[in-house]
Structures are given as C-alpha cells and as structure tokens.
Design a protein that fits this description.
- With 330 residues, the protein is an all-alpha fold.
- The protein has 15 helices and 3 strands.
- Strands 1-2-3 form a 3-stranded antiparallel β-sheet, with no helix packed on it.
- Strand 2 and strand 3 form a beta hairpin.
- Helix 1 runs antiparallel to helix 2, helix 8 runs parallel beside helix 12 and helix 12 packs antiparallel against helix 13.
- The longest helix has 21 residues.
- The radius of gyration is 19 Å and the shape is globular.
Length: 330
C-alpha cells in the first residue's frame, strides 16, 4: 500500500484527481492512527515462514520513503517525527558502518547482510536526516558514505555483488571475502552462481545510489572509479542481454525456489522492474542513454496489465512507483 501511495501521489501532482486525493488522505490517516504498525513499533511487510516480517532494513527504508512523501505533500511534521522514531529504533553499527534490523518476531537485533537493503535504507535515512537538519543523523549518514566503497564488491565489468562486506573485524572480513571468492569461482566455471541474481538486482541498487546522488552528489564515492564502472555496467549491452536470461538454473538459489516459466531473469523485469528503474536512473544522472529499449522490454514481458512473466503481479504493480520517482516534486 505504501508503494501505491507514492505512485498515486505523483499522478496527483501531475494532474489533480479527487479519487487520488481521497486515497492519499486515507493512507495518511492509517499512518497517523498507527494502523499499519505492530505492537513493538515496526511495520511488518510479509508473513512468510523462515523469513523476517520486515525484510531486513529494506522494509523500514520503504516506510521512510513514504513518510518523506507524506511530509512533502502535507507539510505535517508528524510524518517526519514518525520517520525519526523508526530511524532511532534501528541501531547503527559504527564498527561495520551499517544498520541492525528490528523485527516483530526476533528478540535480538541483527545486521542485515544484504547489501542492497543497507543501501536503500541509507538513501531514505539520508533524506530524513537532511530534512530534519539533524546533526547526529547527518553524521551517521556521512559515516556510511565515507565507508560505502569498502562495504561491497563489484566484478570487473561493474556488476554489484549481492552480499554485504563486514569490515568490523578481521574474522568477518575474511569470511565475507572467502564467500565472494567462492561465488566468483562458480561463475568462472559456469556453475549456478550469484551472477544471475546480481544482474536482476543491479538497477535496484542503482536506484538507491542515484537517490543519494540526487540528495548530495558531493560525496567522494560519486567521483570514484568504482561508481563509474557501476554506471557503465548499468547502461551496457552485457546487462541488457543478461536480463533476457530465462535459464533460471543459472541462479544459485534456484533449488530453493519454485520452478517458473518466466521468459526472462526472474529478478529483473518480472520483479525489480528494471526497465522502469533504468528510466529513473537516466533522468537523475541526466544521461543521453536511450531508455526506450528497456521500457519496451519491460512492457513486453509484463504486458499491459503487468501480469505476464511475473510470480507476483501485485508487487510488480506496486513497484510501478519506481518509474514515477523521477517526476516527483521537491
């Protein structure tokens, strides 16, 4: 419902509509009346056996993103106050330069080890910190950005690796690097590896990076060779071709997932809506890259009702907001 809020909000800004306005007001009331939050103060996103209810720090990131939209639309400070409450409940680890996740059904907080989750949370954290002009929060965000370069790896082309690198102690760092090495060897020998999933999530990572770039492009990371390679890979023929890959057995996680007849990378057009994401990335970076081929592919794979070639049409429909992000005001 929060993703739908962001999409409808942008549509309403482009062309005011009473139906849109009523929907937005209703969702805002749900937030203010605490109807979407659990007893321990978190916003549950899923009920799936063996999974946490908040999807690491990604769930809180999406809540923060919507609260910022609500504040910008209404000017109501209570939405920023709720955003700060969420931020203060997710502990920041200065040793590893990342955040812990707080869940409804896990007693002890833990570090979310998925890099794209940490990156998305950081992007939304930064928006709140600067809107509040809160020195403590801005310092935390700056610490993350100062260490971002060492929190993840890329391959030689610029594809972002999926796992977070823990840098807080030698043992954790060695364990993270060994894991990356194993995945690289599997890829070299054409075995099921993380390559398939990483291609599907590459533009998702980039959306968070350009969110931060749009917020403050003066961070050193954005002048790094690493960032340039990541951007180049985003617009490369290699990624465009890899997103067509329908051999789902290439995915190291395929044995844990249901078999599917999806005709493309199951994490790409059919889940992370990378065609919409790349259109947004281009608008923010102001590149001359022609996004038409990505948008055509996106719509071709999903169909006009966004229900073809996907395992979850509701999620895909909700994530249409990623395309509209570039049209937001403010």
């Amino acid at each position: 419902i929060l993703h739908y809020y962001n999409t409808v909000n942008t549509l309403n800004e482009l062309s005011f509509n009473e139906v849109y306005e009523a929907f937005l007001t209703k969702v805002e009331k749900l937030i203010k009346d605490k109807k979407l939050v659990s007893n321990n103060g978190v916003y549950p996103f899923r009920e799936k056996k063996g999974k946490d209810s908040v999807n690491g720090v990604l769930g809180p990131a999406w809540v923060l993103e919507t609260l910022v939209s609500m504040y910008k639309r209404t000017g109501d400070n209570s939405f920023l106050e709720e955003a700060k409450r969420i931020i203060m409940s997710n502990k920041y680890d200065y040793k590893n330069h990342v955040w812990y996740t707080k869940d409804t059904n896990i007693i002890n907080d833990r570090i979310d080890m998925t890099f794209n989750h940490q990156l998305w949370y950081a992007a939304q954290f930064g928006k709140v910190a600067f809107l509040l002009n809160d020195k403590q929060l801005i310092n935390i965000f700056s610490d993350f950005m100062s260490n971002l370069n060492k929190l993840f790896k890329i391959n030689r082309h610029g594809r972002i690796h999926h796992d977070l690198i823990l840098v807080g102690n030698v043992k954790s760092l060695m364990k993270s690097n060994i894991k990356v090495l194993v995945y690289n060897l599997l890829e070299i020998f054409s075995k099921p590896s993380m390559k398939y999933k990483e291609n599907g999530y590459h533009s998702f990572n980039m959306v968070a990076m350009v969110d931060i770039y749009n917020l403050n492009r003066n961070y050193k990371f954005f002048t790094s060779t690493k960032f340039k390679k990541i951007v180049d890979y985003t617009f490369s023929d290699i990624l465009f071709q890899e997103l067509d890959n329908s051999n789902h057995k290439d995915d190291i996680n395929s044995k844990y997932l249901k078999e599917t007849n999806i005709e493309c990378n199951r994490y790409g057009y059919s889940y992370n809506v990378c065609g919409f994401e790349i259109a947004y990335i281009c608008r923010i970076l102001k590149t001359k890259f022609d996004t038409k081929k990505y948008l055509d592919k996106q719509l071709s794979f999903l169909g006009k009702d966004l229900s073809k070639n996907t395992e979850d049409s509701i999620v895909v429909g909700a994530r249409l907001y990623e395309y509209f992000k570039g049209f937001e005001k403010g």
